[in-house]
User: What shape does this take?
Amino acid sequence: MVDVETHAITPLDRDATVYIAGHRGLAGSAIWRRFEAEGFTNLVGRTSSELDLRDRQAVFAFFREIKPTYVVLAAAKVGGILANSTYPVDFLTENLQLQVNVMDAALEQRVERLLFLGSSCIYPRDAAQPIREDSLLTGYLEPTNAAYAVAKIAGITQVQSVRQQYGLSWISAMPTNLYGPGDNFSPAGSHVLPALIRRYDEARESGATSVTNWGSGRPRREFMHVDDMAAACLHLLDEFDGPQQVNVGTGKDSTISEIAELVAAVVGYAGATEWDTTKPDGTPQKLLDVTKLAEAGWTAQIGLRAGLESTVAWYRGHRDSLRS
Assistant: This one.
């Protein structure tokens, strides 16, 4: 479902009320930092203990209280291949619940601008590379995270439906694999890059002679520093309007093996790397076509090595307080 209308867009009012859902997560915290740095004076966030976004009545009451002008929906239940494969019902149900509740409450308040943050996993497993926005719904999803992807596709459709039925200038952004400060480094719940950082850093500390990673190391992945993603999202809210989701990425990818070598070098690990090919690889390649983002006037700024160095420094400074 895609409407044909776009609207005259002006930059966001820096003094208006902005609700950032998921402001303590990897993406949401980066968006909060970016908005603060850009002079926003009335940012609103709630932790999950303060507001359960799965509780529809509570969400509606919250929106009626704060009456936001803008909303960034960065809240989500997220995890790596193991978590997605083990708990697909949780990833489908909880993400659908929170998305519908937040967007329905935002619609009741006629929120002017809403950005729904999705994921590049919405695209077919075997989509042509680099993946264009119009590849959506043209093939089968990657089975290991299909439930999560379906929830995100539903979110895109809800944004498009609100645009079509109510004429509000809501948009969707689909980031590639993110990393950076605030990431989840837990062995069971982390994505590949924070998992590699923790694994190699612990091996360096313990003096282990080798590190074993999942899969073959051959799949190709694109990684984007979360601060770049936040900058892109604010740029889109200030400058872009349109019904189709926008890919947010760097336009560059590497094999998991190359990424592992770079992580080992950054953390200072000199041992061997082995690969457990009995574990799944996931999607063979997932590189986003970022032409649309570039046409909107934005390109990524943070290189992978520089981003990894700052992320490793953050990880080492916060290890004692990280999720285990």
Summary: Residues 18-181+224-251+287-301 form a domain with the Rossmann fold fold (CATH 3.40.50.720). The CA atoms of residues 12 and 263 lie 38 Å apart. The two ends are 42 Å apart (CA to CA).
